[in-house]
Specification:
The structure is a homotetramer. By secondary structure, chain A is of the alpha/beta class. Chain A folds into two domains: 132 residues, 3-Layer(aba) Sandwich (Rossmann fold); 62 residues, Rossmann fold (3-Layer(aba) Sandwich). Helices cover 50% and strands 14% of the residues of chain A. In chain A, strands 2-1-3-4 form a four-stranded parallel sheet, with helices on both faces. Chain A has a two-stranded parallel sheet with strand order 5-6. The longest helix of chain A has 20 residues. The interface between A and B is medium-sized, with 19 and 19 residues.
Amino acid sequence: MIMKTIKIALISIVFVFFAGNGLLMAGHGHKKEKKVGILLVTFGSSEKSAQISFRNIEKMVKAKCSGIPVRWAYTSHIIRKKLAKQGKQLDSPEVALAKMIDEDFTHVALQSLHTIGGEEYHHLRRTVGAFKNMRVFQKIILGYPLLSTQKDIERVVDAIIANIPKERKKDEAVVLMGHGTHHPSNAFYSALNFQVRLRDQNIFVGTVEGYPEIDLIQSLMLKKRTKKHI
Amino acid sequence: MIMKTIKIALISIVFVFFAGNGLLMAGHGHKKEKKVGILLVTFGSSEKSAQISFRNIEKMVKAKCSGIPVRWAYTSHIIRKKLAKQGKQLDSPEVALAKMIDEDFTHVALQSLHTIGGEEYHHLRRTVGAFKNMRVFQKIILGYPLLSTQKDIERVVDAIIANIPKERKKDEAVVLMGHGTHHPSNAFYSALNFQVRLRDQNIFVGTVEGYPEIDLIQSLMLKKRTKKHI
Amino acid sequence: MIMKTIKIALISIVFVFFAGNGLLMAGHGHKKEKKVGILLVTFGSSEKSAQISFRNIEKMVKAKCSGIPVRWAYTSHIIRKKLAKQGKQLDSPEVALAKMIDEDFTHVALQSLHTIGGEEYHHLRRTVGAFKNMRVFQKIILGYPLLSTQKDIERVVDAIIANIPKERKKDEAVVLMGHGTHHPSNAFYSALNFQVRLRDQNIFVGTVEGYPEIDLIQSLMLKKRTKKHI
Amino acid sequence: MIMKTIKIALISIVFVFFAGNGLLMAGHGHKKEKKVGILLVTFGSSEKSAQISFRNIEKMVKAKCSGIPVRWAYTSHIIRKKLAKQGKQLDSPEVALAKMIDEDFTHVALQSLHTIGGEEYHHLRRTVGAFKNMRVFQKIILGYPLLSTQKDIERVVDAIIANIPKERKKDEAVVLMGHGTHHPSNAFYSALNFQVRLRDQNIFVGTVEGYPEIDLIQSLMLKKRTKKHI
């Protein structure tokens, strides 16, 4: 329950950043008719609940950028294969961009829906860089993932605080678990943990596969509890 | 009639070069299972006769490289759009390569079926270069177009000579017309004209939109005829 | 006679401009003799004390990789210009790498000496990527900056703890100030602050231009002090 | 004397193309002060006579583009090494471009002084492409080599005809020898041979290492002579 609420909150943040990136049009003297498109790029998910989030994101993007076609791409090869077996053909970022060339798009704004700028995001950056170097689009830009600039992190903290269910008592701990990665971007979980706790000492951010591990989070919780008892 | 015969001859030459390129496997330490694929890249055509040529090329490639999947891509945007209206979905090189990434190909050999290394071929080179820089394939190579090295030109001359119908008399002129281009590669038509005429003074190579123009070819033919009359 | 003169003349001219094709520089399967080099890349500094650090780093690198030439490059344009006025010619990464091509290096390892993976580091990554795509080196790699993987951060925490002067008392605060940036990598300071304080609650990491600001660090110190007083 | 005349003629052609390329300035929103530079790129030569040609080219370029700094780069590694031993430090294209970044150039026009678009020229193209992809210059362009478009070839033919010494008799053969290459661009010699002979049947273009070989040129000369004798 808590998780779902937070998810929706985070979506609104994503949207803010997307809108912020805007579409700056460079005058290269190309004669093609201008055709702007948006490509939303997610890791992908086989969960039904995620589809609802994706649909909500798309609605919000379309509401803000009305008239601009919105496409989707999925960076997870495993998810794409899994859904292909269920008859859903999902595009990789490479396929999605290649199709947009073919459809005469001249300006493409990609928005990463990843949580941190990890391996998936950096692979996406390399793909976008390669398409940039092909010089087939007049402009192609990629928006940062959720946890990026300090302002982004602050908005995420706000969203987390705002979406904690009201029935939760102040001394009840809330633990948010991210995936975690061996990539340097794993540090964003530490940063988020530090910053969210400045606002509420009983909210913790941990990761399943990276740092801070659940054991560390538990020991931090115990330390807090001890203090509380004193 | 003559044209069809020559076309088939040229195909065999294309094939020779394709086979010649081979598949050199780089050891980058990638752990993906090796999966080799061939991508034949043509300008494309809406003519039915061209489809026969394409099928013949594919047969020959498959005969020589049995077991290796063969894909097609079409560089002409106009042809792709035209055939899409007829319900035939053709891939651009970008889409074809992006799909091959998605299908886990590790080694891709592209063979250009263009006549000369003009704009279409150089655009293709840039596309291949961009996919190379993505580092998603362990190896990606692009074969030269038909008229390239001196050895290539000599084989084309052989094929032209070999495919002139036998009923043609020695003093009858044969004029082969290429498309012609404003690109520097247009010089290959002059080179071919020079070299084919060393073998048979009554065979001429001209172009529709480039140099040598049909007027020049006509004046060369008249000059020959005058000489013959003497 | 005239003919001969012209021939020689043109040959020499042609030769001047063109003899280069004689050099068979095979793109793949390089036949060049292997030559490994290290390029240490720092922001640069006009402080004398920094020169000592640079010299120490170089000593350590040379001790570990004996026999491998070590070069330096400086990413700060301002520092390079400043030192040029003092008669010290420092290379940008682009110039340093271009010179290494010229000196026949085949394998180059760059090590970033930046603190975080910010703008300077990402610009360097783009430069290295471009040289990679030139395919002039057989191998070119770039090491992460100081604060990168979780293991790196832990080592930095260890080093900080180990280098606190012994005369410092446990309840005396230690504040380490980083530069700070608007780039997402600024989050590494929050992460470091969080992790170093897990080891010693009285060590703080702040930044001059980013987050955590000195005001925040001060308020954290005051909070600690209050607690201590209780 | 003759040599000098021809040299100047060729230079003027080079210059025409250089000027033709112009400097198109794109508005990318960069805030750097605009600084335009020219980089002339030659194979290089250790011959003194070539230095005179280089100086003449530079004079002509400076006369047409007054106020724009002109730099030189040399693509031949061997020539660079040879002249380095004589104390002359020549820049490779990579070093020259890297230095121009450092000197705050924003717009760079490179002009290849190569005869044909062979290996050296295509290597240079790759270098220029890599610097383009670095996005350090607002604009970087590379001019075609001497023998490129049909218009270029026609100008070269004009220059050759115009520079044949007047004392040469119509039935005296003139043979121009190029270097020749295994690269597809070798076809430009055939094209030039074909086109120059349309204007004067007694002028021949051959190559030292490619096609047309001197033997072929000799047999063509003999054939002509036979005809003349008849």
